[in-house]
Every structure is written in C-alpha cells, then in structure tokens.
Amino acid sequence: DPIPKHVHIFFPDNEYYRKQPILPFVSHSIISLINLNPDWNVTVYNDTMIDGVIQRAGDIGIISKQEVDVLIGVEGEEEVQKQTAHIVERSDIARLVLMYHQGGIYLDVDRLVSRKFADFITQSTRLCLPTHFDINFAQDILCSSPGNEMFLSIIQRASKIRLESERRKGWTKSGSLFDMGPPLYNSQILMNVFGMDSEAYDRLGGDKGFFAQARGAIGEQGTIITKLESDYCNDTLVLDDSFLVCPPREELYERYGMTPWNEEVDALWESEPDLKQ
Q: Which region, left, alpha or beta, applies to residue 147 given φ > 0 means left and ψ of -120 to 50 means alpha?
C-alpha cells in the first residue's frame, strides 16, 4: 500500500506549536510542514498519547501485556506511585508501533521542513531510509506503508532487551536504552534490506564507504527513498537548498524544561544504585 498521509510527532505539549508560533524554530519546522502539506494529517502526541499507543499495541498483540506494564506501569495502591519507563524508551517503541500498525511519516520534533512531501514520496514509495552522515540509518525521520515486517522485527528484538533489563524506579540504564535505539535499528535494517548480519558488515569495513554504496543501491530500486543527513539543519530529505538560516531549537526545549535524557537516567542510577523495581 502507499504511505498514508499521516505525520506523527512527539512532544510533551501537543499544543506547543499553537502556543509558541513566533519561535523561529517552530515556524520553520511543524508550522512550515503543515503549510507546505495541507493534505497531510499531522498528529502531535504528548506523553499520555504515547502511552495510549503502547497500550493499544498490547491490546492487539504487537507487544505483550508484560511489556506494556514495564513501559507504562501498573496501577497499584493509591499511595504507591506508578513506575514507568523513561519517556525516551516509551517514545522509541511507540514510533516503531505507529510505523508498523498505521504507517505514515514520523519526524523528531526538531526536524526543519522546507519541502513538500509530494516532492519525494510517490504512490510507489513504501519506505524511507535516510542515513545519519555515513554512520548509520537515521531514526529521526521514518516513513513506511503499514504492515512493514522490518518494524515488527525491530519491535520484537527490542522487547527481548527490554524485558531482560534491570531497572531503577522503572528506568533502565542509559546503555540498555541506547542499545534498543540506533544500534538495534541499524542492525535490523542491514538484515532485512541487505541480508547482512553484523559480522558481514564488519568484514566490509563497517561504515567506511558502506552507506554511500547503500544509498546508491536503495535509490535504484524505486520503492525505498534515501538521503544523507548530517544534523537537524542539513537534512536533504525534507530541506531544500533555499533554506539558509538555521534557527536554534534550544529556546523551545528550555521553555519546557527539557534536558538530555542520558543525564537524567545516569543521575537516577547514581543517586539510588541499590533501589530496584
């Protein structure tokens, strides 16, 4: 099936772009996206909505009830605070679930947009696989038609890591959280798209030259689109050459008290090393 015209974005306040429209970063990201693509449905998911995606994934059997409880917590007695996984862990699984179950485009909130999606997504497009530099396949921009088994494979491999991970107040270590992100995503793409395991990838010299060749091979077959990105201000999939000014994203993050997730996780584990879930 073609990619549905639905954009998924995660942010703690799903009305942020209506409350902060004059911020240059906001006007050049989601507001620009909406104006350039009026025929696309854009949903911003706050934390509660992300948990709803996870709950529905459990209800329809994409993940287990046990995993749902690990991620969004188990309601206990009133005086006991419900323990949930870190929002980054919940966001990582939720975007994979959305790609597999609904399809569409997922964008990190900090993606600037100056291109119409119709410029690169056609009726024959089934998957987007941009690369982050020549290091790995990017996770900040995803697109897929629904039912792509690659995303289900990633979900299932992440589930195994998640259910075996030690936790403090619901949060796993930053290393385990990272392992369920870019490394897992990258290795599963190598397997599903290129039929290559990590050993074969290493024998080719790792990322040295591989991703440039991979983009060339992907571009030849027509149903998968790929581009090279370096950072949020240099993403040739959703940005064109007319974009010259890179507005800072930090002001938006500061207004919502957002800090680097790994610092939060490491601080918890260092402050309560003996407290287990």
A: left
